[in-house]
UniProtKB/TrEMBL annotation, chains A, B:
Coiled coil: none annotated. It comes from the Bacteria. The keyword Transcription applies. Residues 8-106 form the HTH arsR-type domain. This is Metalloregulator ArsR/SmtB family transcription factor. It comes from Arcicella lustrica. Keywords: DNA-binding, Transcription, Transcription regulation. NCBIfam families: HTH_metalloreg. Gene3D superfamilies: Winged helix-like DNA-binding domain superfamily/Winged helix DNA-binding domain. It holds the Pfam family HTH_5. PROSITE patterns: HTH_ARSR_2. The keyword Phosphoprotein does not apply.
Amino acid sequence: MGATKTDHFTERQNQLATLAKAIAHPARIAILDYLIKVDSCICGDIVNELPLAQPTVSQHLKELKNAGLIKGDIEGNAICYCIDENTWKQFQDILNAFFNGYTPNAKSCC
Amino acid sequence: MGATKTDHFTERQNQLATLAKAIAHPARIAILDYLIKVDSCICGDIVNELPLAQPTVSQHLKELKNAGLIKGDIEGNAICYCIDENTWKQFQDILNAFFNGYTPNAKSCC
DNA sequence: TATCTTAATCGTAATATTGCGATTAAAACA
DNA sequence: TGTTTTAATCGCAATATTACGATTAAGATA
């Protein structure tokens, strides 16, 4: 055990969970914060910004890329990362739909 | 290693990550979906709704309660859970602020 | 070509999460 | 009181995540 039973849940529930997981680490939030701040996406000085070693940052970048939140372009021997506009908006919509799905109800018991 | 280096990130970054982590599991999304659906929060039949054993569900409920997303009232020997309206709204605001913080920029390199 | 720079990948250790059987605690009920 | 119901907690096994040193691959540069 220890493995999530993804096949028993709906595709939407799994997607939402995966999406949340992608941003469920302060380093990944910090990376996204940085990419937003410097918006013309300077590359590997992300490593200088973060209190983490290069392989660790690389691993977090990979996860963000897998989630689709960022993309990277090769530029010489450096790599230039930035927010993926489309996925970003999509994520925002999915999360909004989820949170807007709840409307407080007076007859709730607690 | 293996432990997240929370102390090197800002409080906001950690809060956002913790928040995301709370909903980063399909079972927890499913629990929230269910609580939203039945809005007058029926209790432990959450277990019947989910493909998971009672202790597992109990553990997920505990995590959601820790995050503040749900609260529980004792009702006889059963316990009645429901969405915590205030935290829910707060989460929505925090996530919105994060996602709205990015505005697509033409001069992005990729 | 040899060297430097940049960033991915490999391998491994430490820790966290997920899941559940067994047990427990507390209230309901016979 | 003894039994049933409900849900938390304990203890453990399986797996996932986080972190990083060492290595590697590829382009830049001398």
